[in-house]
Specification:
This protein is mainly alpha-helical. The protein has one domain. The chain contains three helices and no strands.
């Protein structure tokens, strides 16, 4: 059950991450609002810190990359 949950999580995470990465790299306007960006940023940061505390480095690196991507997206959204 736990392995199935991890696989489903990584599939959904990959889809969202690639979509957000494409939106950041192109000059398309982002359709997510600033409060939603802040919610993503806070959630990813807390998950990353929790994984770092538990010495789970793989998940820590995954969520730190998501935190960086969402923060870049937030900066792009506020500047444009």
């Amino acid at each position: 059950m736990e392995r199935t949950f991890k696989v489903i999580f990584f599939i959904i995470y990959t889809i969202l991450y690639i979509k957000l990465l494409i939106d950041v790299l192109t000059l398309k306007p982002l359709f997510t609002s600033i409060p939603l960006h802040m919610l993503f940023l806070i959630c990813f940061l807390f998950i990353a810190l929790n994984n770092y505390k538990n010495r789970n480095t793989t998940f820590f690196l995954v969520f730190i990359s998501a935190t960086l991507l969402v923060s870049i997206s937030l900066i792009k959204n506020t500047l444009l």
